[in-house]
Specification:
Layout (H helix, E strand, L loop, with lengths): L13 E4 L5 E4 L18 E3 L4 E2 L2 E2 L3 E4 L7 E3 L4 E8 L6 E6 L4 E8 L1 E2 L1 H14 L4 E4 L6 E2 L4 E4 L10 E8 L5 E2 L15 E9 L11 E9 L2 E4 L4 E4 L1 E10 L13 E6 L2 E7 L2 E2 L7 H4 L2 H7 L4 E2 L13 E2 L5 E3 L4 E9 L5 E10 L13 E3 L5 E4 L3 E5 L8 E3 L1 E4 L9 E4 L11 E4 L12 E5 L3 E2 L3 E3 L2 E4 L5 E7 L5 E4 L6 E2 L5 E7 L5 E8 L2 E3 L2 E2 L5 E5 L8 E10 L4 E9 L1
Bound molecules: zinc ion (ZN).
């Protein structure tokens, strides 16, 4: 059967040919030539669309900018500025343009914007007394022409170095689409390279960290790969395959992601993956695509060539039995992986499988509670309650709970909620009963994940409730310690004449900073925040006249512990 992928409802897959006659699969054609490159630099990428990233598929193309900031960024097509956004992490400074052809382009990690746009952002920040802002604009406010400079490239937000993150989205659905399908090609004669494959013995059981797996090294180059040893695998029963591969292009030494992956059995396609388009609310399904236990334990990026039943992301245009192959005869079979980049360069890996009749199906002890991926699942043992909404598991789960010893300073035992090797798509509700000794401090309690820290918490009917997005070990702690404000270049009585900015750091021990506000002479002022250095800056402007002034900073954590800092200074 052909699996209809999400809302895409594919009639067929088209094949787009490159100059060497190699094809690229996609479900529909996109207007080529409508958009221009957003930079004047020769196009070169530091990251490809759909590339594998922790917890998400990369949602755009990362254009390289010579390790520098400050290159003009141009509107890829005429239209209007429809949204402006400032984030501490994430996209940093971002501009969204909406175009009359039904698409929206996004430009992120910008250093600074066109002065009129920068003024609009600053007004909004002062009006809403917030550094982080995200607002929409009307079509008549800032129309743009094709090629017009709208901003300068930067390194703001969660960016690993100067570059321009560029997206093309469907304006209606907000699905993000591979920009390379719009003719924004990158010079590329280099086919994907394959380093290993994986074989998973599924045999009717849900995929998990206990699924028996074999890893095999691969040798080859220039598009032709084979198993290092042996050439023929003996397999029986329900098998899932996996692969480790990257792609490079002709413009840089950056290792990017592949565009598509096809698995064939005896010449018939049984599974296809391609990074054509996806919705942002599905991007966590990367954890269903990769071998998540291997990623958590060993940081290995193995791309599974079978689909978990609960994954809803639209990256699997076709498959047969979710890509799972049943070897139940005694014949010799041909298995082939076909990997392509967006330019159509193709690599293949061929191997033979000697199929065997499976002996008795291995018995797997199901010692926990069976959670169905397509149902709402609940667990309640008194001290711990949890509810996982339907659609949040990628596969059925033999759910296990265990009680671990109480940690020093904790207000509950440590509760092991299944394990951290099983991904879930979104948040679930978790309640933990605190010790009676918590008394009046229940309103200062948070649930802590033993690996990643506080997941927040509120008091509710004798429990502390939080909404974690991972399984793992959880316990209760209390946060009665207020944030710490560290002035970096100011003290009471400072002379700040000729100094560009007031610099501070603010940190919290447990629950995290909820808000940090600064005033000068009682008037709210903007603190610019830097994701990497964690430094907060007030940049002096002409509203601060020469003379004596008072800076006041108030930092509040998630449990409403408050710290004030005050300094008089001269300017
Ligand atoms: Zn990016």
């Amino acid at each position: 059967m052909i699996r209809k992928a999400g809302a895409l409802l594919l009639g067929c897959l088209c094949l787009v040919l490159n100059s060497r006659g190699q094809g690229r699969i996609q479900s529909k054609e996109y207007p080529a030539g409508a958009f221009q490159y957003p930079l004047d630099l020769p196009p070169s990428t530091a990251g490809s669309f759909g590339e594998l990233r922790p917890n998400h598929f990369h949602s755009g193309l990362d254009f390289r900018t010579n390790q520098r900031t400050g290159y003009p960024v141009h509107a890829a097509m005429y239209g209007y500025v429809s949204r402006l956004r400032v984030q501490v992490g994430g996209f940093g400074n971002a501009v969204y343009l909406t175009h009359p052809n039904g698409y929206t382009t996004v430009y992120a990690h910008l250093d600074h914007l066109l002065p009129e746009l920068a003024a609009a952002v600053r007004n909004y920040q002062y009006q809403h007394q917030s550094f982080e802002v995200d607002f929409k604009l009307q079509p008549f406010q800032f129309p743009v022409t094709k090629g017009q400079t709208i901003a300068w490239s930067g390194n703001t937000g969660a960016s690993g170095g100067p570059h321009l993150h560029f997206e093309i989205r469907d304006s209606l659905t907000e699905e993000t689409i591979n920009p390379q399908l719009f003719g924004l090609t990158i010079p590329d004669q280099v086919p994907p390279s394959i380093s290993s494959i994986a074989v998973y013995h599924l045999n009717g059981h849900p995929f998990s960290e206990t699924t028996p797996r074999q890893f095999m090294a691969v040798t080859g180059a220039a598009g032709n790969y084979r198993l290092s040893n042996p050439q023929t695998l003996s397999l029986s029963g329900d098998i899932g395959f996996g692969i480790t591969a990257i792609d490079m292009n002709s413009t840089s030494a950056n290792r990017n992601g592949i565009y598509s992956l096809e698995l064939k059995l005896d010449g018939r396609t049984v599974y296809t993956f391609d990074v054509e388009r996806f919705a942002f609310d599905q991007t966590h399904a990367i954890n269903a695509y990769i071998d998540y236990p291997q990623f958590v334990l060993a940081r290995r990026w193995i791309q599974k060539c079978f689909i978990l039943p609960g994954s809803q992301i639209t990256l699997y245009p076709q498959s047969e039995n979710r890509g799972i192959i049943s070897f139940k005869d005694t014949l010799l079979h041909d298995v082939e992986y076909l990997l392509k980049d967006a330019a159509g360069n193709t690599s293949s890996l061929k191997l033979k499988v000697q199929s065997g009749i499976q002996k008795d199906r291995p018995v797997v002890n199901t010692t926990g509670t069976l959670f169905r991926y397509n149902q709402r699942n609940e667990f309640n043992n008194g001290p711990v309650k949890m509810v996982i909404p339907a659609g949040n598991l990628y596969d059925d789960l033999d759910f296990k709970y265990s009680l671990l010893p109480q940690k020093v300073g904790a207000y509950s035992a440590t509760h092991r909620i299944h394990n951290r090797l099983t991904p879930i798509h979104d948040h679930y509700d978790l309640w933990i009963k605190p010790d009676a000794s918590i008394g009046q401090l229940a309103n200062k309690a948070v649930i802590v994940n033993a690996v990643s820290g506080s997941v927040g918490g509120i008091y509710q009917d004798g429990y502390i409730k939080a909404r974690p997005a991972t399984f793992g070990d959880f316990f209760i702690r209390i946060d009665t310690v207020a944030p710490v404000i560290t002035p970096l270049n100011i003290h009471d009585g400072s002379n700040m004449a000729g100094i560009r900015s007031i610099n501070l750091k603010v940190s919290d021990n447990l629950s995290g900073i909820k808000s940090c506000r600064a005033t000068i002479d009682g008037q709210w002022v903007l603190l610019q925040q830097d994701y990497r250095t964690r430094i907060l800056k007030f940049i002096f402007d002409d509203t601060i006249k020469p003379g004596k002034h008072t800076l006041e900073v108030t930092a509040t954590d998630q449990k409403d512990n408050i710290t004030h800092y005050k300094a008089d200074f001269n300017r």
